[in-house]
């Protein structure tokens, strides 16, 4: 059967591209090897899907070309997606930091996308691996279907047990398109043995300012039995490179608080002062690491400043990340230098498009990655519609 476009991947980006093109009159086929569409949407946001962020702007994304995402993001904004959510009568709430979630279930977002696809007469074929992709005489052939347009919407290899693959990169390379080295992002970091005393406090979380690779985020940090996690760490993990340190400020006004504690309770030890502001197990671990043996009343100003400095810049040297098995997204991907930022088409290969996480555009934690999936999908869908009408 022939179509105007074959979209490989029934995730957020692929379904959005399909619905947009289909509703504009294009005959669209979506192919996916999974047994149901939008699997990552279903597990996202703890089952409630953090579907966008009110603060979305290009600065919230990593890419070799930080300007690339601007066009699509400005033409289909967080407010456009929110309007669609409201049209479908999906109740939502803002949790924190502009993050919008369904009140009910992520299933509502998948149902909404499928309803939009149905409105556009989109065919969706599940349990269908991409297999061999043919390309001859301006037509792409996938799983027996032919079309002048092939959209690569297969995401990245994060969470392989959910069916994620790196097929997008294989397709890109086959058509001569460069791939920016993929790496796990929004991912927990592992600590080496030497820094493992913090393993003992696995499960402890605290607000922190995390810094790595030149990026700083203020959110919760979590100590795990393997190392560091929590939103602040996941955020900086996208900027971290092997060999770089990660620093955590767990008590921004430490100098003031310690002087105050020294005045109020001169017979107490550092651990007691820290316990007033931090979880007890973390206070224990920090006091042990800092190793201040004497009572607070005997601690000099210089010593207070040294301890405060340590608490505001706890430095860790991660041995690595927990890898694709735990990475919420994949950074890197199909080189934006090969794509039109307006249409998402590979400029040198007519009819070949790439959208969503497959592309070298990676958002912060907090709904940004879905907003990129929606926006890049719409840009591509509109381009398919435009070429179909000619
Ligand atoms: P996506 O990966 O969603 O879809 C790709 C599709 O291609 C899949 O259906 C897959 O089966 C299919 N496919 C892959 N290989 C194939 C092959 N060889 N043949 C055929 N089909 C193939 N983001 C956010 O903004 N808010 C959030 O709350 C969360 N939460 C979250 C939680 C967890 C646990 C994860 C892992 C990720 C998130 N994310 C997130 C990130 C978000 O899920 C991700 O960025 C988008 O789903 C990317 O959408 P895409 O459509 O590009 O790829």
Describe this structure in words.
This protein is of the alpha+beta class and about 400 residues long. The chain has two domains: about 240 residues, FAD/NAD(P)-binding domain (3-Layer(bba) Sandwich), CATH 3.50.50; about 130 residues, Elongation Factor Tu (Ef-tu), domain 3 (Beta Barrel), CATH 2.40.30.10. Helices cover about 30% and strands about 20% of the residues. Strands 18-17-14-15-16-13-19 form a seven-stranded antiparallel beta sheet. A five-stranded parallel beta sheet has the order 7-2-1-11-21, with helices on one face. β8 and β9 form a beta hairpin. The chain is elongated, with a radius of gyration of 24 Å. The two termini are about 20 Å apart. The site of dihydroflavine-adenine dinucleotide has 38 residues, from α1, α2 and α12.
- Summed up, the domain count is 2
Average pLDDT works out at: 96
Strand order of the largest sheet: 18-17-14-15-16-13-19
User: How far apart, in Å, are the first and last alpha carbons?
Assistant: 21 Å
- Quaternary structure type: single chain
**Percent of residues in helical segments?**
25-40%
Percent in strands: 15-25%
Structure keywords:
FAD/NAD(P)-binding domain, single chain, 32% helix, alpha+beta, seven-stranded antiparallel sheet, five-stranded parallel sheet, 22% strand, binds dihydroflavine-adenine dinucleotide, 12 helices, Elongation Factor Tu (Ef-tu), domain 3
Could you provide a short overview of the structure?
By secondary structure, the chain is α+β, with helices and mostly antiparallel strands. It is built from twelve helices and 22 strands.
């Amino acid at each position: 059967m022939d179509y105007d476009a074959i979209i490989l991947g029934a995730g957020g980006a692929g379904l959005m591209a399909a619905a947009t093109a289909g509703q504009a009159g294009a005959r669209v086929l979506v192919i996916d090897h999974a047994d149901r569409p939008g699997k990552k949407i279903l597990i996202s946001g703890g089952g409630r899907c953090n579907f966008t962020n009110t603060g979305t702007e290009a600065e919230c994304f990593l890419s070799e070309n930080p300007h690339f995402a601007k066009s699509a993001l400005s033409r289909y904004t967080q407010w456009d997606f929110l309007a669609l959510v409201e049209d479908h009568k999906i109740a939502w709430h803002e949790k924190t930091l502009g993050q919008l979630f369904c009140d009910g279930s992520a299933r509502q977002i998948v149902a909404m996308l499928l309803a939009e696809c149905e409105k556009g007469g989109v065919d969706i074929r599940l349990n269908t691996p991409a297999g061999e992709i043919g390309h001859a005489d301006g037509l792409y052939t996938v799983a027996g279907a032919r079309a002048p347009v092939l959209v690569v919407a297969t995401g990245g290899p994060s969470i392989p047990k959910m069916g994620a693959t790196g097929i997008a990169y294989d397709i890109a390379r086959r058509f001569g398109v460069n791939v920016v080295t993929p790496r796990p992002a929004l991912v927990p970091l592992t600590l080496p043995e030497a820094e493992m005393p913090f393993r003992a406090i696995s499960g402890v979380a605290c607000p922190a300012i995390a810094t790595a690779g030149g990026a700083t985020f203020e959110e919760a940090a979590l100590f795990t039995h393997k190392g560091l996690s929590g939103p602040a760490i996941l955020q900086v993990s996208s900027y971290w490179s092997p060999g770089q340190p990660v620093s955590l400020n767990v008590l921004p006004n430490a100098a003031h608080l310690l002087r105050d504690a020294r005045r109020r309770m001169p017979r107490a030890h550092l651990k007691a002062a820290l316990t007033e502001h931090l979880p007890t197990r973390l206070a224990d671990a920090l006091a042990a690491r800092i190793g201040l043996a004497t009572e607070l009343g005997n601690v000099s100003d210089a010593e207070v400043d040294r301890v405060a400095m340590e608490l505001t810049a706890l430095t860790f040297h991660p041995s690595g990340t927990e890898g694709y098995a735990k990475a919420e997204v994949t950074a890197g991907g199909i080189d934006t230098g090969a794509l039109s930022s307006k249409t998402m088409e590979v400029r040198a290969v007519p009819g070949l498009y790439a959208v969503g996480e497959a592309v070298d555009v990676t958002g912060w934690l907090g709904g940004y990655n879905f907003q990129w999936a929606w926006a890049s999908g719409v840009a591509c869908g509109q381009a398919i519609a435009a070429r179909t009408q000619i």
